[in-house]
Amino acid sequence: MTWDISKMDEWTYQQFPPGAVIPDAGNSNDYITGGWRSERPWRSDEKCTQCLLCWIVCPDSSINVADEKVTTFDLDHCKGCGICAQVCPVDAIEMVPEGCELPEVK
Ligand code: SF4
Ligand code: SF4
Whose CA is closest to 4, among 20, 22, 17? Predict the structure, then answer.
């Protein structure tokens, strides 16, 4: 089946066909997939106990760890789902709207 996409720039969202074709599954590492994020995670180093629970549950493997400690977020691939903030037992992660200033380091 082929789609006539010659006037795609004029489509409303209702005209886009549902679903997608993924010809090369598992290739998200090759692309910057964080661009659709509306909120970004921010971690308080002071509150964090380095339990690594956020690292285990992140569906995009976007929590960087070095020497068995959380260091930074991979914002090229974090989609802003907020799961890391939800599971953190000490509320060390806040979801901050994109475009806003990050909280001061605590
Ligand atoms: S917001 Fe979601 S994708 Fe981003 S680091 Fe947290 S769990 Fe991973
Ligand atoms: S879940 Fe919270 S306390 Fe545990 S490593 Fe992640 S930010 Fe730190």
Answer: 17
Question: Does the C-beta of 78 come closer than 6 Å to ligand 2?
Answer: no
Closest ligand by atom to 72 CA: 1
Quick: pLDDT tens for 60-92. Answer: 999 999 999 999 999 999 999 999 999 999 999
Q: Give me the residue spans of the domains in the chain.
A: 36-100
Q: Is CATH 3.30.70.20 what the domain over 36-100 is classified as, yes or no? A: yes
Supply the residue whose CA is at minimum distance from atom 6 of ligand 1. Answer: 84
Report if pTM > 0.70. yes
